[in-house]
Batch of 3 targets.
Target 1
Amino acid sequence: MTAFALDDPFDRSKSRVPGPGGLLRTAADSIPPSGLVLLAIVSVQLGAGFAKDLFHLLPPSAMVFLRIAAGALIITAVARPRLRGMTKRDWAVVVGFGGTLAVMNLTFYEALARLPMGIAVAIEFLGPLGVAVAASRRRLDLLWVLLAAGGVVLLAPWGQSSSVSWAGIGFALVAGACWAGYILLSAAAGQRFSGATGLSLAMVVSAVVIAPVGVTAGGADLLQPEVLLIGLGVGLLSSVIPYSLELQALRRMPKHVFGILMSLEPAVAAMIGLVVLGEILHLREWAAVICVVAASLGATRVRKKL
């Protein structure tokens, strides 16, 4: 996941009053970086849990639109991206980044509608795991691939009583592939744009891409004040807050430690699903989640020792 920081919207050297970004950084500096990463993970999964709990009010595509639109408005207002001097290649990266972000979120929410949270996140996590393994190219990486694949096999709905559906697995796999693309495009955007410019522009593009689907699915319900408030809350929990916390953490800790902590995300998602949604995973499903977490931890730790 790409990090994002809430930078000061004005030059603090011209004012003795700290901006909102300065206040957030001051608060974040008092928390250990590992704590920031864990808070970011919990924030993301809480946002997903609250969104899923409201699927009876809005379909997944409409909820995705609210989340992305709210996040785009907040991030753009704070980051204030500049469009001057952008080349065609810059715009190509932004459009690709935004389109990938839109499909990733849409397919993940569709997976959430069909799978328990922990399982959906575990399958989606195969995307970043694949990027990590591809970057290493060591024989030992085959072990982590087989371990993750074994987790997916354990999740397959072999029995009628399973809480997992093939459609849900398919949506989660597409979301994982998009997450892999998101990581690569995020790196490309980071090389071309300073600060959060690339991410903020990609969020705007993503909102535009998802708008036709989300507005059609949500209809007039999207204009209800309580629904708009929900969208703002989910956008904050799922995008703005975790992006800010992650970037603050990355500034103060090695990347391999960050990757190890992020590997806990499927397990945290399963716990949030249990607490917020009452989703109880069977032993086989917990084993599958643990397989994915262990594969991610293994790939990250081995890459650190190279």
Note: Confidence is low (pLDDT under 50) at residues 1-20.
Target 2
Amino acid sequence: MEGFWEFFWFMFVCLAFVAYLSVLFSIITDLFRDHEMSGWFKAIWIVFLFVVPFLSAMIYVIVRNDGMTQRSIAAAQKQMQAQGAYVREVAGQSSADQITAAKGLLDAGAINEDEFRALKAKTIMQ
């Protein structure tokens, strides 16, 4: 039975350490996202995060929670907009544009009528 509690305590300590690392990385990321805070204050926060880790992390999360949330939401929205723009760019043309391009190839003689019909059918099926 003693081995179980040692294992349980070990797992709890590992979980607490991983949770602390997650909070620490979130704080450091937020420090770099905050463009209103001067570099000296950022340096002071980072020094305190390594000198007095748990206390300074708790103070940072309590004091700067609202700004941290707003910066995180803004970064997520910016990422979503970038992904949307990338998807629209990669998706390229609409079905009508693809059929028009295939018709242009047919008119130029680059493809024959059967290839045009196959491309048209494939585009319509998408």
Note: The radius of gyration is 28 Å.
Target 3
Amino acid sequence: MKKILIDCDPGIDDALAIALAHGSPDLEVVGLTSVGGNVGLEHTTTNALCLTEFYGMTVPVARGADRPLIRDPRDASEVHGPNGLGNVVLPAPERTPRNEHAVEFIIDTLAASPGEISLTAVGPLTNIALALRREPRIAEWVREFVIMGGSYTRGNNTPAAEFNIAADPEAAAVVFGASWRTVMIGLDLTVQARATASVRSRFTEFGRFKQELLSPCLDFYGGSVPYRAGDGPPIHDACAVAYVLDPSLITTVPARVDVETHGRFTSGMTVTDFAGEPALHNALVATELRQDAFWDLLTDSFRTVASSLPGA
């Protein structure tokens, strides 16, 4: 069984990514760390706690950075709603975050299990950059480092930049400059994972999970994310967790990725060079998703989550 530590900013698609990880018999979630991103840190931390209680997860939650390294905070509340989970209303959490800051939790958790944990970041990369600055050896201690972020052809926050990178380009530059090889699950891949009507028909038997979280999340997301009629909204963050579960679901290509931090129109762009010297490659860049197998994996995990909700 693989271990995963998820750094997140819940967020509708974060909620589904966490469900995918929790529902898989092949993953052990060792913790969640929150960061300001889709909405402010107060909401992302509360959402992480609420989701773990709703799903019946007994994992630590650690609160992280509330703002980028040097820039003013930005959010995506127009996509995820004012509290981050669209129209979903979950009970207030009974648990509280750990006293330990997310950066310390990441360092301590990786140090305790070197080579065992897939560190997976599905929000802005501020916590990860701060952890690298404090303890560069985390780049050696991870089993792998996977992000949902970036793109080699497009943006969704600006024409050039994906939101998670654009929210803190300086942090992203630190992360891509570290000694690990980042697995970049970017927009070019995640837009292939669309929750179409056909996909959603798989979820009809999921009871409270569907009624209280899946359907309202996807309904809200579908109304806030522009897409062609019939395509359905892309479920970005779950793709990063899916890679951890089964890398064969996603084709990756080695490349050099640098983050633009100064461009007037291109700040946050992940400048990707597939053709450069192999010795300079610092990333595996996702290009193609095995869609049927991806949705099979997601559906199986969601079925497990639905059948094991507290009170179900």
Note: The chain has 13 helices and nine strands.
